[in-house]
Design a protein that fits this description.
alpha+beta, Immunoglobulin-like, 5-stranded mixed β-sheet, 2 helices, elongated
Length: 150
């Protein structure tokens, strides 16, 4: 009986050594990157920056009374009244106003910067205005005003 080792063990060892050397060497020349060229992992990309929500909108009402009419002027910031998109899909930062008069649950959809209430009764009146998306979801921004008809 011969104690001679088969040739394939040497071939197997040589192949394993060659494979290990290739793995340790990598897949080609290494590229040098300076710290200023390297972007941190959490740095926002241009696409991510463009998807950020717009600044919180604001709403202020001013009321001018003349006889039994009240002209309401709506001032907004970070918000665009968009009558052309009323009741359509949501576009961040635009929409319309829901106006409630004297605590009524009936809303008036306001799509312009001014709105006139006519034939008001004498006495104290209150207004509440809220900002809404094109598809009527609230922005959770509101303003309240009280005024007098003499």
């Amino acid at each position: 009986m011969s104690l001679h080792k088969p040739k394939h063990n040497y071939t197997l060892a040589f192949t394993a050594a060659l494979l290990s050397a290739a793995l340790l060497t990598g897949c080609g020349p290494k590229e040098k990157i300076t710290p200023t060229q390297q972007q941190p992992q959490d740095a926002p990309t241009a696409a991510a920056l463009s998807d950020k929500a717009p600044a919180t909108p604001t709403l202020n009402m001013k009321v001018d009374v003349s006889g039994t009419s009240a002209t309401i002027t709506f001032q907004t910031a970070n918000f665009k009244l968009a009558p052309e998109h009323y009741s359509s899909m949501h576009i961040p930062g635009e929409g319309h106003i829901h106006l409630f008069v004297d605590g009524s649950v009936t809303r008036i959809g306001v799509k312009e910067n001014t709105y006139v209430l006519n034939n008001l009764t004498k006495g104290k009146h209150s207004l509440e205005a809220t900002l809404h998306t094109n598809n009527h979801q609230p922005y959770n921004v509101k303003d309240n005003v009280e005024f007098q008809i003499n």
